[in-house]
Design goal:
Helix content is about 90%, strand content about 0%. The chain has helices at about 1-40, 45-70, 75-100, 110-125, 125-155, 160-185.
Length: about 190
């Protein structure tokens, strides 16, 4: 009798393994599909990217504006750069405050590109600086506006939406003002 009992137990184990292995593979593939979906649609990740990218663009705009205050020949550019810097400092404080609440660590992304953009402005002479600054600030403000518009479509977080509603009109105002100065320079 013992040999038949052991044969019976072996047969049961084999049947269980045959059934269990394919079902594990099915569960694993479902999990992978779900995690890919979650990665592309996870609002927390989208918001984290928004805070990091916006903070980096904001820091860049602040640096450019400070540089313009020292290097620009035109008073209109100096005045606008002061307004932009003040607004961007307030925005950066708000971003940091909300990011801390959400436990988001803001680090620099593409800092070499950011530095190159800033170094190009530093290297410009007084004559060509104003034109380069205006072109550069228009590009940065446009990028920031694009970030605001994209997050407003992707999130339902009221704190983030309030931030966008509060700062987006001002960014458009600065963009219009910069474009107006660009026309005057040309």
């Amino acid at each position: 009798m013992p040999p038949s009992k052991s044969s019976f137990l072996k047969a049961i184990c084999i049947v269980i393994l045959i059934i269990a292995i394919p079902s594990c593979k099915k569960n694993e593939s479902l999990e992978m599909v779900n995690s890919k979906y979650v990665l592309t649609k996870n609002s927390e990740e989208i918001e984290a990217y928004f805070f990091i990218a916006t903070a980096n663009v904001t820091k860049l705009i602040i640096s450019k504006s400070q540089l313009a205050q020292h290097k620009s020949v035109k008073n209109t550019i100096k005045d606008v750069s002061i307004k932009i810097e003040n607004n961007q400092n307030l925005l950066l404080q708000e971003i940091n405050k909300i990011a801390v609440k959400k436990l988001i660590i803001i680090n620099e992304i593409n800092s070499t590109v950011t530095r190159e953009d800033l170094y190009e402005l530093v290297d410009k002479g007084e004559v060509s600086f104003d034109k380069s600054y205006i072109n550069s600030i228009i590009k940065s403000l446009s990028e920031q506006i694009e970030l605001f518009e994209s997050i407003s479509k992707e999130t339902e977080d009221m704190e983030v939406l309030n931030l966008v509603v509060h700062y987006l009109p001002k960014q458009y105002e600065f963009l219009r003002e910069a474009k107006k100065i660009k026309k005057e320079i040309n």
